[in-house]
Amino acid sequence: MKLLNDNHCAGGHNSNRPLILSQRTAALGPDTPIVFQESCLSVSSDQSRIVLRRYFEQFSPTNAHWVEYVHSIAAADLIQWIMSHGQLHIECSDSIATQQHKETR
Predict the structure, then answer these.
(1) Does 79 map to a domain?
(2) Residue 51 domain-assigned?
(3) Which of 11, 20, 33, 95 could be disulfide-bonded to 58 (CB atoms 3.0-4.6 Å)?
């Protein structure tokens, strides 16, 4: 199996720890390969991009195959998209909320 401290999801020594979104290992039977899947979210080393990595591996005593898909987007673009398309929820302290409520009457 590919070691977790290689390229996928674990990152290098200077990278931030990724957020593991999902991780699954399955063996369908005694003579079938072990299937490992992992998805994680991280920030690039220069903190300019958000990176989603999806890693898939099939491992057996005689064979091992893996593939990793890496998607990335500029952090500024993702923040702009969230502000334009995301659901807005506003929270504030009671004193500010009370003052704003009085001003809107």
Answers:
(1) yes
(2) yes
(3) 33
Q: How many domains does the chain have?
A: 1
Long-range CB pairs of 83-92, under 8 A, 24+ apart, other chains included = none
End-to-end CA, the chain: 65
Q: 39-55 pLDDT, tens per residue?
A: 999 999 999 999 999 99
The answer as to whether 89 is a domain residue is yes
Give the residue from 45, 48, 47, 67 showing the smallest Cα distance to 57: 67
What mean pLDDT comes out for the span 16-40? 91
pLDDT at residue 14 in the model:
47
Cα separations (Å) of 29 from 24, 32, 35, 60? 16, 5, 11, 12
| Structural domain that includes position 74 | 19-103
Go through the chain and tell me how many residues it has.
Answer: 105
- Rounded CA separation 36/64 (Å): 11
How far apart are the C-alpha atoms of 3 and 87, rounded to whole Å? 38
